[in-house]
Amino acid sequence: MKKPYWIPCCTILILTIFTLSGKAFAYQEIEVKNGGTLQGKAILTGGVPEPRFFHLVLFPNIDMCAEVETDENLNRVLYDFKTSEGGGLKDVVISFEHVESGKPFNKEPIMIIAENCKFLPDVNVVRQNEDFKVDNLDAVMHNSQVYQAERGKIILNIPVPAEEVTGGKIKFKKKYKIYQMICGMHEFMQTWGYRVQNPYYFITGIDGTFKIDNIPPGDYVVTAWHYLMKLRKQKIHIAENGTVDLKFLFDGDEVVRAHYETIKSGRIKKGAKVYKEKVYGK
Amino acid sequence: MSNTRLYLFKFFIFLIAFLFFPGSLSAFSPPTSEEIPESISAWGKEFSLKELKNPLRDDTGQLKKNLQAGQKIYFEKCFLCHGDLLDGNGVYGKSFFPPATDFTSAKSILTKPDSYAFWRIIKGGPGLPEKHGPWDSAMPAWESQLQANEVWKVQLYIMETAGDFASPQVARSAEPSAETGRLLYVEKCSICHGEKGAGDGLTKAISSPKPRNFIKGQYKFRSVKFGKIPTDQDLFNMITNGMKGTTMPAWKHLAEADRWSLVLYLKTLSKKFAKAKKRNKYPAVIAVPNPPENFNTESIANGKELFLQNCSGCHGIKGRSDGLSTFKVVDIASDSIWPRNLSKSWLFRRGTTREDIFQTLRTGLSTTAMPQFSTRVFKDNQIWDIVNYVQTLSPAKRPPVNPLIKAKKIDGNLPLNPDDKFWNSIDAYYFPLGRQVIQGDKAYLPTIDDVTVKVVYNSEEIAFYIHWDDTRVDATLINKTLVEESPAPPLPPEFRVEEGEEEEEEIRAAQKLPDAIAIQFPNKSNTNGTKPYFLNGDKDHPVNLWKLDTGSMHAVEINARGMESWKPQADPSQNLAAKIIYRYGRYSAVIKRKLATNDKENDIQFVPGIKIPIAFNAWDGTQGDTGSKKSISSWFQLVLE
Questions:
Q1: Is B504 in contact with A273 (Cβ distance < 8 A)?
Q2: How far is CA B187 from CA B85, B116, B225, B262, B340, in A?
Q3: Cα-flanking dihedrals φ and ψ of residue A9, to 5°?
Q4: Whole-structure pTM over 0.90, yes or no?
Q5: Which residues of B touch A61 (CB under 8 A)?
Q6: Domains present along chain B, CATH in parentheses
Q7: C-beta atoms surrounding B179 within 10 Å
Q8: Chunked in runs of 10, what are the mean pLDDT values of chain A (282 residues)?
């Protein structure tokens, strides 16, 4: 039987279209000429939200976990809002939405350290399908449950054996941007990640300041994300060789917490659904 | 020998036989050298066994190489049953009847011609002469998996090595040294623990738990705090006593000085020991105080409360490893193994005395999720309370295997509900299961290791009650039958809130692979003593399987002619009724059928007084069991009284 010639032709055509269209959306690295700069500060206004308390009596390995950030009542204390004088807020991810092309995108791979039942750092940025590593320095087996925080859906669950480096991959569903990694046995071991699609991002230090340079001139939307706050967005225009100053204000009275993370809930419930609610403020 | 001595000797032999091979299980005796066939055919060739010698033995130039190759084959194919020490004490060695051969015994192939082992390895259990019960042996016919020269290599390894394990060894050096330890390590330990001690030896892929990584310097069992380096005595004890239920044997046949040499060498594999030496800072031994005598109801009640609060999150409220946290953190393949099933004390690695359990609680198991119970929170008397309660969760010893199920006749109905109190009064029979490591897609990771069975009948029907432990219920059963899962541990009173918290009803997906149990009979009972092959029959000897799976929750009658040839019976022949429930880490099921059916060709027919072979298969779907990946039992017997 004569094979229809149009089948391979169509296949090639379709594949070409897909490949080209895919490329059209992906970030392109180019030489940036006359790039501008964004700088500014993330500031916490209002009251500083209370830290979260996890009573170590409820969890295994008390002696090991009590080595760090534990009060006299054997509570592991999570200081989610670290601020400096003048209100600078730490661990805010400043990033640009929809940048089609610009400076090279050489992101450092994610390496999370687990030591004394604590994941470090608290916040990372992450690319879709990015590999991450967890270096467990503890003698206890931990466990890495990765949630897509917007829904609280577990997207990965891997054991993290003692004194080993374990690898995994973050794969978001379309449009999801936030992950949260929690140890299945020690819920106070938490680290967060925000998805970026271009190299124009910055994670604020304790002074809350940020500076992003080499930005191709144009109009952009800049977002500021803190893991217990609603996302902030601002539109900016970057002129040739220009500098834009920007402030992101976070109101400490508007904390958004996942219900299952509060001590009230005690333990992560099966399925670990997120209830966005104002748990406490000023 | 005097008459009295002879009498005592015979009595002793009888006692041993009685204890270890009760009932019909004692029947197996291996063929003698005289029973070696004249010739056998394999790989399309005919081998005359008369005068056949291992051709590799005379090749002295290649002897070392051939021995190493033989060792590799042995540890890939044989050691799970015959054991590291070739003594039949592999992890599944005693799960089958007849048990795996002890090559260190003079009665084994050691004293027989080369051709004997060649024949037995190639033709395995199915090639045994009929009077030795070929249908009972779990020894595979290796001709399908090995070539002739490989068979000779493994035979060479067994013959040359087995003697080393048979008697206490003379010390390599009178004074222990790390160098002697290194030589011993390379010879004895590296095959599992790897050349450099990283736990990545040959057997890693088929062992669970996996061999220890010595480079970390972390050991599960210590007399010191969690996460700290063990004492020399701890290491010595581990080498001497081995690890029950794992592939790590007890090396007590090695001279004491040699075991100390191994201790010295192990300490060179991790930097932690040198660091401690440099600082002259060693962790303090946590002494186990004398146990109080208050093994009373009050202590047990306190212990229960503490257990529910602090242990049930992983171990489950009945101790069957079904805690709420468990399924989230367990991954056998990557060595995140189950918390111990506390209802099976014979598997406690450290031991079962109150002191052993106390020490485990106070020191935890480094590198696992089992913590040490801190002195900041728990006083000694509270630990003893937990110990006392844990001891109530299990019989002190593994139940004996009584190979003949005696089914009692009952007047009236046979309850289909496994939860019916009726079943409490019926005699229980305990049967060990091994994993299917014989043919096809093999099941190396341990899951279901035993079943408990009760059988009754009335004038019309027969009912089989069967229970087995499984750490996770198939969600299919929820809301369709009785399912009780271990709840989250209660919060301490100070954390409880007045108003109830809203909890959304969680809808869990059914397991991709269902859990299942199957009872196996010959399709018809033969009174001449022959049986189908225990692993689902063979092409000439079919079996009748009653399989109940959690996906359908029905029991189906299946005809099988070997593991790969299963066929459900046609609808008119499906006559089973079944019910399954799940409670705290344990499935219980009842399967009923009429004593006699119309399908005389395929169905077993139950007639009082006749001994009927019976065997069991079980699948843990959560752990990937399906098809030939399953737990299996040998043939036992059933008689309707």
A1: yes
A2: 12, 28, 32, 11, 32
A3: -60, -45
A4: no
A5: 226, 364, 371-372
A6: 27-166 (1.10.760.10), 178-279 (1.10.760.10), 297-391 (1.10.760.10), 404-489+509-640 (2.60.40.1190)
A7: 14
A8: 53 50 70 96 91 84 91 88 93 96 93 95 94 94 80 79 92 87 89 94 96 97 94 96 96 73 43 32 26
